[in-house]
């Protein structure tokens, strides 16, 4: 008999959340993490604003909240920066060049998106229904989803259905005239996705973000550094075993049923249930192998789009950074440089051809004298042909015009290729797979694998590649655990 009921491949935050829920139900669990450090892509992230408070409550985890004022600064090349603050889901303009009419329109646009996002948020904690299953449960769930959209009212429902397929640029250009505000909203819509502001569906990705993270810029923030240690402690307290530096090479199957895993060092470990916190493509192609899958399923799995395009830059300065034209008390901010729609689109265009533009977009924040920045669009390229030193210098040059004391002690950058290599995430993708209309809800990661299940009995998925997508929310791990508990009753 195997020692474990469940093996979870990967100690990312979703793997840890999934383990916590299952261990509460008495399952004996082993987490196998390839790296020394738990947390996976959380180690690349810089802010924790979307983690589910419902999950914190369920697991009885008390994460300290950050209660100080924080700002959103849209940087301007002539240092005429726009400063916003989000309080209780309301945007306040602290400083802006936009006229009153544009400020009002910006706020009402965000309110419109908020209404639609609240409809989507109804679906976040549900296992998506299975299309064409013929089961009444799935049919009812679909009808129920339709009903929740209908509850928006005729006018809002029509507008919702109109905008979800649109690109964010069109809706912004129809409503606003201020380039900075349009750039800022475009940035929020496309960050982490392989989309530009003119890509169809880029509004939907903004709505989804709002639906998940409680606010557009997510004013409720938790202490980022406490999340993984708190989740780890919760697991250990409940008897979960965690093995670091344990790289799973293969999932073992017998008669189409998952029965265990083989590690890099050839150690074989058995369990009744295997859950993969690795992305779906890696799970199917690297860990499982295509042999037990049918050709149509393989084709759909191959078609998941996983090209990442964000590089993470960390620079240590001699002293705390000073941003030109920003007062010291407003330095606790997320700084964003995405000055207008066309600038972002041009940067995106280059990445489509696996190049990066001279004029990239970025966002950063600082903690004391360390700046952590997401630079985009730096594409994932086959064979990792990036010139790292050039890319670091290029990224620093982008920041230079805004920081008056940029005396650098150390600079490190990780490309999407290195993210792939370190965390086994195909393409180094923020969401483990694009976040678009055909890769969402009952189509995430793709039709036939969207209920956290796989064609292999007792093999489940729990990563960001599943519904409701990426970001540090824990919802994927929670939903997968609920599905498994229900399946095994
Ligand atoms: C550069 C960057 C910045 C980001 N910034 C933010 C941010 O500021 N805020 C935010 O909300 N989101 C951010 N994200 C997105 C977010 O971090 C991810 O969507 C989320 O952390 C994914 O969590 P996960 O648990 O599903 O998967 P992962 O974090 O990818 O975890 C999977 C785990 O499985 C392990 N693993 C994989 N294969 C194996 C194997 N064969 N054997 C053993 N272990 C294995 C990996 O090492 C990893 O620990 C960012 C992403 C990137 C790339």
- Could you tell me how far the N terminus lies from the C terminus, measured between alpha carbons in angstroms? 20 Å
Average of per-residue pLDDT values = 93
The largest sheet, given as strand count, sense and whether it forms a barrel, is: 8 strands, mixed
**Strand share of the residues?**
15-25%
Q: Helix/strand-derived class?
A: alpha/beta
Number of domains: 3
Helical percentage: 25-40%
Oligomer state of the chains in this structure: single chain
Give the H and E element order: EHEHEEEHHHHHHHEEEEHHEEHEEHEHEH
Would you give the CATH topology of the largest domain? FAD/NAD(P)-binding domain
Kindly state the number of beta strands: 15
Q: What's the CATH class label of the largest domain?
A: Alpha Beta
What does this structure look like?
- The protein has 489 residues and is an alpha/beta fold.
- It has 3 domains: 4-62 and 223-305 and 431-488, 3-Layer(bba) Sandwich (FAD/NAD(P)-binding domain), CATH 3.50.50.60; 100-213, no CATH class; 310-423, no CATH class.
- It has 15 helices and 15 strands.
- It has an 8-stranded mixed sheet, sandwiched between helices. Strands 1, 2, 6, 7, 8, 9 and 15 form a 7-stranded mixed sheet that branches.
- Helix 3 (100-121) crosses helix 8.
- The model has no long low-confidence stretch (mean pLDDT 93).
- Flavin-adenine dinucleotide (FAD) binds at residues 9-15, 32-35, 40-42, 44-47, 50, 247-248, 277-278, 287, 310, 312, 374, 419, 423-425, 430-431, 463-464, 470-472, 476.
């Amino acid at each position: 008999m195997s020692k474990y009921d469940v093996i979870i491949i990967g100690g990312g935050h979703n793997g840890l959340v999934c383990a916590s829920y299952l261990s509460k139900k008495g399952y004996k669990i082993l987490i196998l993490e390839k790296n020394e450090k738990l947390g996976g892509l959380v180690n690349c992230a810089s802010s924790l604003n979307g983690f589910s408070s419902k999950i914190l409550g369920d697991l009885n985890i008390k994460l300290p909240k950050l209660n100080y004022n924080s700002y959103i600064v849209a940087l301007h090349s002539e240092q005429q920066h726009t400063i916003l603050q989000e309080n209780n889901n309301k945007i306040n303009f602290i400083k802006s060049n936009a006229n009153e009419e544009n400020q009002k329109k910006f706020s009402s646009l965000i309110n419109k998106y908020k209404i639609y996002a609240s409809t989507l948020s109804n679906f976040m904690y549900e296992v998506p229904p299975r299309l064409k299953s013929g089961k009444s449960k799935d049919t009812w769930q679909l009808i129920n989803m339709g009903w929740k959209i209908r509850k928006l009212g005729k006018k809002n429902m029509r507008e919702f259905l109109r905008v979800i397929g649109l690109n964010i640029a069109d809706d912004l250009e129809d409503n606003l005239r201020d380039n900075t505000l349009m750039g800022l909203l475009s940035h929020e819509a496309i960050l982490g996705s392989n989309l530009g502001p003119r890509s169809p569906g880029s509004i939907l990705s903004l709505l989804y973000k709002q639906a998940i993270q409680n606010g557009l810029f997510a004013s409720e923030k938790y202490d980022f550094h406490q999340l993984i240690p708190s989740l780890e402690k919760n697991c250990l307290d409940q008897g979960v075993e965690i093995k670091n530096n344990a790289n799973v090479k293969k999932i073992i199957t017998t008669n189409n049923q998952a029965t265990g895993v083989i590690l890099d060092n050839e150690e074989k470990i058995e369990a009744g249930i295997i859950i993969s916190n690795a992305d779906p493509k890696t799970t199917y192609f690297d860990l499982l192998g295509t042999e037990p899958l049918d050709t149509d399923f393989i084709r759909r799995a191959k078609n998941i789009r996983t090209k990442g395009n964000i590089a993470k830059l960390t620079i240590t300065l001699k002293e705390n950074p000073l941003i030109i034209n920003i007062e010291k008390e407003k330095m606790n901010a997320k700084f964003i440089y995405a000055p207008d729609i066309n600038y972002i689109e041009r940067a995106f265009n280059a990445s489509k051809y696996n190049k990066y533009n001279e004029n990239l977009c970025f966002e950063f924040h600082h903690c004391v004298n360390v700046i952590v920045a997401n630079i985009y669009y730096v594409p994932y390229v086959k064979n990792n042909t990036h010139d790292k030193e050039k890319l670091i210098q290029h990224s620093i040059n982008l920041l230079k015009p805004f920081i008056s004391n940029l005396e650098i002690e150390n600079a490190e950058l990780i490309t999407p290729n290195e993210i792939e290599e370190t965390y086994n995430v195909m393409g180094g993708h923020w969401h483990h797979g694009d976040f678009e209309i055909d890769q969402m809800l009952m189509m995430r990661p793709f039709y036939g694998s969207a209920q956290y299940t796989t064609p292999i009995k007792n093999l489940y998925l729990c990563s960001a590649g599943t519904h409701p997508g990426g970001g540090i929310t824990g919802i994927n791990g929670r939903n997968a655990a609920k599905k498994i508990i229900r399946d095994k009753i």
